[in-house]
Amino acid sequence: MKNKILQSVFGLLVVFSSCGTKDTGQQTQSSLPKIEPLYITEKVIHDTDDPAIWINKADPEKSLIIGTDKDKDGALYVFDLKGKIMDSLVVRGLQRPNNVDVSYGLSFGGEEIDFAVTGERLTSKLRFFKLPGMLEIQEGGIEVYLGELQPDYRDLMGVAVYYDKDNGKHYVIAGRKNGPTDGTYLWQYLIKTDQGQLELELVRKFGQYSGNKEIEAIAVDNELGYIYYSDEGVGVRKYYADPEKGNDELALFATEGFTLDHEGISIYKHEDGTGYILVSDQEANFFHVFPREGSSENPHLHTLIAKLPMSTVSSDGSEVINFNINPEFPKGLFVAMSDDKTFQIYDWRDLENYIMKSK
Hints:
Layout: H1 2-19, E1 39-40, E2 48-54, E3 64-69, E4 74-79, E5 91-94, E6 97-108, E7 111-120, E8 125-131, E9 135-136, E10 142-143, E11 156-164, E12 169-176, E13 186-192, E14 199-206, E15 215-221, E16 226-231, E17 235-240, E18 251-253, E19 262-269, E20 275-281, E21 286-291, E22 306-309, E23 318-320, E24 333-338, E25 342-347, H2 348-358
Antiparallel strand pairs: 1-25, 2-3, 3-4, 4-5, 6-7, 7-8, 8-9, 8-10, 11-12, 12-13, 13-14, 15-16, 16-17, 17-18, 19-20, 20-21, 21-22, 23-24, 24-25
């Protein structure tokens, strides 16, 4: 597989030398060599949608990839770093789980635990699982969007976790298939564990929505304190993650150059606050890349850096980490859903090399 990647990089250099200019993201997909994954996961039964990555900090090589199988008889699949299904950890019998996210260090039952959370669209419930064993924390889950009566207003889609390092609080941000256009599309819940069980407290409703399609992809930058979400067909919207900082929209970017849908969002983070925001251009099989830190004049000005031609097919969800997992992934890995019942696993360096040549 590495030989394929080296061939792709060589081919890219040929493209640059022949045209005499840097890649500005305007070339057609057919003219660019695709970035190849190191591994492709074994297939799920129904329909992959969104992945998350859990880092085993004690033994990074035992880190896990968790992905949704989106169906009325759906599941959370768990894979090793080579894409093999770890059948003993798979959670089955979930009712159309759409997105999944993970977080670390939740105080529960007298210990600090890591957890995964997914949303069941058909029950309007969030389901929580302790990592790495994938044991359910709150049996049957917790219902959200209570009181909503309009069609699709309770159909859970996007799920993301915000951890506020300053106060040690964990929040879940939930998106849905449809919702109001009055700036209350997303609901944010505080995770409470005071009584020895998991509870959710609604702390705010926020987020503009165009009304065109739906909001599914949500990503949180814990360190910088921002929430990003895809208003499909319109762009990516940015808000403060801390509910105390208000509900003003900070940015709307990625409004041009997408074929149809804006989908999965993932954030590659450097310790100095720089990095990249990657957004799936689903129908074109590209990922558009924007600066995490914004510009030198405006932290909320996110201008296109590059378009990455990926081997994924109609990719929806994605996740990326900056962590030395093992010699194959010394600078982290990128995982993206592909519309063939799989997830593709990439060495981050292959994406980074492409980005650097595009600048």
